[in-house]
Amino acid sequence: MLKIIATEKAPAAVGPYSQGVEAGGFIYVSGQVPLIPGKGELVKGDIKLATKQSLENAKAILEEAGASLNDVVKVTVLLNDITQFADMNAVYAEYFTDHKPARAAFEVANLPLGADVEIEMIAYVGQK
């Protein structure tokens, strides 16, 4: 059974998709660009602040589903400039201290809304 996850504590989807979906004990969090919830303002030009906002958005979606960052098993980070990897990674490390999920990071040509970073997550919460 699928459960759609939606929260006002994260930005609304900017297309025909859900913020998150729970299925088969997993929570799939759609890619989160650094939009400030409720304001629609994009954090841009500072990869550390942008990474923090993207992670906060993803975290809010997980929390709406009754999960946390400790349940995350896989993260994908998309950057528009891979030379900013170290700065992104420094902020990322503040969110995943003892628990370190599998992760991939890629440089891409463009991200939605001209964002500097987009982060998606998969969490495992088991069958309910």
UniProtKB/TrEMBL annotation:
Pfam families listed in its UniProt record: Ribonuc_L-PSP
SUPFAM superfamilies from the UniProt entry: YjgF-like (SSF55298)
Membrane-spanning segments: none
UniProt family annotation: Belongs to the RutC family.
The protein's name: RidA family protein
Species: Fusibacter ferrireducens
